[in-house]
């Protein structure tokens, strides 16, 4: 405590406190607080777990169906590729047959089989004047 003696206050100072004096606390009305029960029932975790399980099962089912469809499509593509290869081989065989049938030696054999004979004298027709030229005259192409 301090060694300075306290100044006694006069009755006037006590009746009218100075502006520098601290205000005295006033008693204010406060409502009394009480604890009340939670009006909502606690939620169960079971519906959330069932929802998560259903989403996971659905996702796995979709992945299984997509994988099965992709496998079936891959099998079909493989079958179509094999068929395309067979058609390519058949086309190559037919091209060989056409080239062989169009060769001069084959044409000569087929013509002789039909009773045709090779022509001895070759003649040309000049279209400008309609005259017929023999192959020895050099007037052909």
TrEMBL record:
Keywords: Membrane, Transmembrane, Transmembrane helix. The keyword Membrane applies. Residues 1-27 are annotated as: Disordered. The chain crosses the membrane at residues 48-68. It comes from the Bacteria. This is Cell division protein FtsB.
